[in-house]
């Protein structure tokens, strides 16, 4: 029986599929690549068009709802997550992949009410994998139920992380240092597909035990967080404690044991929160 927010979730799936077609088509044409805060922070006309398409369509259907969209948040302005039903949109997660034709690109749509995530939709559009999850109803990929890995040994795990787009030498050193410590545990491998949302869906699918990153945003992780938790996984801050969607840091793991083991090795660094004003060059 359809439940609360089912119509919104159905609409998110429809929009993600439509957006995926646009992204795939765009790969055949001139991508119109631009830089945002730095030379490694890329955006394309497609990122902007897809976000506009999603927001315009949602506004027509749900005029009372609010939005946080990566390409609509003005540089330096804080994102405000209120109690109002809010769509948290990353129109193209994996823009660098998209620009290079590296085949892991997703449309990520999370939905929160009273600051609690109600559903998540991640469409990995090159692979044609539609990941969906609604609070309390399980997680799915193309309609098949997902479950996290039952691995409890870190030394038999794959851990995913990303280098992000921060090129501050001190930050880069900490990222490498954490990866080195985790590799030396020794884990089976370190991976990262260049899309936070897909990394999280891989945790939910059971082929990656944990994913962590510092510096990502609420739109990178909102949808993936619901998918991981509905697949039986856990979400944490990189220094322990519960995930804070606005904190720009996440550990998504198959269970508490692996999460805590990974957290122990991470050299955390401060990331300016999504909900405070930020100097866009940082
Ligand atoms: C990025 C991707 C990448 C992660 C970055 C994100 P974008 O999102 O998710 O994997 O490392 O932190 O910003 O910019 O391609 O939407
Ligand atoms: Ca981006
Ligand atoms: Ca993203
Ligand atoms: Ca994006």
From TrEMBL:
The molecular function terms in GO held by this entry are: inositol monophosphate 1-phosphatase activity; metal ion binding
InterPro entries of this UniProt entry?
Answer: IMPase, Inositol_monoP_metal-BS, Inositol_monoPase_Li-sen, Inositol_monophosphatase-like, Inositol_monophosphatase_CS
Positions binding Mg(2+) 1 in this chain are 70
Catalyzes what? scyllo-inositol 1-phosphate + H2O = scyllo-inositol + phosphate; a myo-inositol phosphate + H2O = myo-inositol + phosphate; 1D-myo-inositol 5-phosphate + H2O = myo-inositol + phosphate; 1D-myo-inositol 2-phosphate + H2O = myo-inositol + phosphate
Q: Which GO terms describe its cellular component?
A: cytoplasm
User: DNA-binding among the record's keywords?
Assistant: no
Pfam families xrefs:
Inositol_P (PF00459)
Which residues bind Mg(2+) 2 per the record? 90, 93, 220
The subcellular localization recorded is: Cytoplasm
Which key words are in the record?
A: Cytoplasm, Hydrolase, Lithium, Magnesium, Metal-binding
Q: What is its EC number?
A: 3.1.3.25
Q: Give the source's domain of life in one word.
A: Eukaryota
Cofactors: Mg(2+)
Task: Name a biological process GO annotation.
Answer: inositol metabolic process
| Broadest EC class assigned to this enzyme | hydrolase
Keyword Cytoplasm assigned? yes
Q: In which pathway does it act?
A: Polyol metabolism; myo-inositol biosynthesis; myo-inositol from D-glucose 6-phosphate: step 2/2
Q: How does it assemble?
A: Homodimer.
Which family does the UniProt entry place this protein in?
A: Belongs to the inositol monophosphatase superfamily.
> What name goes with this protein?
Inositol-1-monophosphatase
Q: Whose protein is this, by species?
A: Triplophysa rosa
């Amino acid at each position: 029986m359809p439940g609360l927010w089912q119509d919104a979730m159905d609409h998110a799936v429809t929009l993600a599929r439509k957006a995926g077609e646009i992204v795939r088509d765009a790969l055949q044409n001139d991508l119109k690549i631009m830089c945002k805060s730095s030379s490694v922070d890329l955006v394309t006309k497609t990122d902007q068009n897809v976000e506009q398409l999603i927001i315009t369509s949602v506004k027509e259907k749900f005029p009372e709802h609010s939005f946080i969209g990566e390409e609509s948040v003005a540089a330096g302005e804080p994102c405000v997550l209120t109690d109002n039903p809010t769509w948290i949109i990353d129109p193209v997660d994996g823009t660098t992949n998209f620009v290079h034709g590296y085949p892991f690109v997703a449309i990520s749509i999370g939905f929160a009410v009273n600051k609690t995530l109600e559903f998540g939709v991640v469409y990995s559009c090159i692979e044609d994998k539609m990941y969906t999850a609604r609070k309390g109803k399980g997680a799915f990929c193309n309609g098949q139920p997902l479950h996290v890995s039952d691995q409890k040994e870190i030394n038999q795990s794959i851990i995913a992380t990303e280098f992000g787009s921060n090129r501050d030498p001190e930050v880069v050193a900490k990222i490498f240092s954490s990866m080195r410590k985790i590799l030396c545990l020794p884990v089976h491998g370190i991976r990262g597909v260049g899309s936070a949302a897909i990394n999280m869906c891989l945790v939910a699918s059971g082929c990656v035990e944990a994913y962590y990153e510092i510096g990502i945003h609420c739109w990178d992780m909102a949808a993936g967080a619901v998918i991981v938790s509905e697949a039986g996984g856990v979400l944490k801050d990189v220094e322990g404690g519960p995930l804070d969607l606005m904190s720009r840091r996440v550990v998504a793991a198959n269970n508490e044991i692996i999460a805590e083991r990974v957290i122990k090795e991470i050299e955390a660094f401060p990331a300016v929160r999504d909900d405070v004003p930020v100097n866009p060059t940082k």
